[in-house]
């Protein structure tokens, strides 16, 4: 999507331009809430209060997700607008200078703050469009399906705990079905219709401890792990698999050795963490079996090798006290380019003058659950820039986000046959 100042054919309606102050004020409350994963309560309250003031049906589930519903009267489509509330840690404070990560600041048409790109801007864009539809319904308009807004917890650790709970428990328990999902992750104003898969693998290599003055008495787990790490760094001697959504990649992200540097010992344990990104037709099972095959081959060469590989599983506690275990993964997913909802969304944004393309995300999202597991067509859309995600001095261009609010509102009006607010 071209920067706002470079566009010739498109001029944002004053109606949406006039939302600038109210949007900045609202999203700033979210930035100030400092919603690390598992600490999203303050952010959830911002959405809960807004829906309470507008008389929107809403609730908080056991996991801590916040859900709002505008009930429809017909056979659909039932639309889910969703995104995560949690943000990643700020990193080096010095790298943020002259800004502060959790003190939102507007400068030169940009809003700075941790999480604004990933993904508070997209989430609040969806919410503002959701509120616009509520105003139309209050004025007498009818929608043919339920419109659902869900701000979820615990996405950033790549485990989708909030969205898993939402789909498995919350929506069914409230009699809510979903035919179409919009996901407000950063997309540069484009439509994301799929993503590469991600799985975090753990490889444990075992040795035999001994005094480091007599290394021959032990089995050094690090030495046994070196050929494994070399194979990973060279993709097991094969070229990356290429797909239109990207190509596979594999990188070592952590190595833990025990007993470690405090002791004069030959290490008897080495844990290797691997981040694997994959594309169809490759699957999570394929990523594990490929490593296992290499380990089996190495064991034949040296029977002393003892090593195992498995997907990492983490236990998390939500701010509500709800506990869950989940695999650290974001399986690959795709919504077809010719899907009717993709075409409707694309054409609607084009008619607004937005320079939109169909793309694939290279990073993981909750679309892995919604589309990957439940086969619900999922479309990503946000005016936030993907390059700003998790960066110091993270920011968005405010006009891009106002465009996004208009875009979401126009698409929802098209889906439900409503006239655009002016």
What does this structure look like?
With 422 residues, the protein is of the alpha+beta class. Helices cover 32% and strands 25% of the residues. The chain has ten helices and 23 strands. The chain has helices at residues 14-17, 20-32, 41-54, 116-138, 161-173, 221-233, 284-301, 340-352, 367-370, 398-416; strands at 57-60, 66-70, 79-84, 105-107, 110-112, 147-152, 180-183, 191-195, 197-206, 210-211, 242-243, 246-247, 249-258, 265-266, 269-278, 306-311, 313-317, 323-327, 329-330, 333-334, 358-361, 378-381, 395-397. The longest helix is centred in the first third of the chain and has 23 residues, at 116-138. The protein is elongated.
Please sum up the structure shown.
The chain is an alpha+beta fold. Helix content is 32%, strand content 25%.
> How large, in whole angstroms, is the Cα Rg?
24 Å
| Morphology | elongated
Quaternary structure state of the chains depicted:
single chain
Taking pLDDT < 50 over at least 5 consecutive residues as the criterion, the unreliable ranges are 1-10
Strand content: 15-25%
Q: Number of helix segments?
A: 10
Mean pLDDT: 95
* Helical content band: 25-40%
Largest sheet: 9 strands, mixed
Number of strands: 23
N-to-C terminal Cα separation, in Å? Answer: 24 Å
Q: Which structural class matches the secondary elements? A: alpha+beta
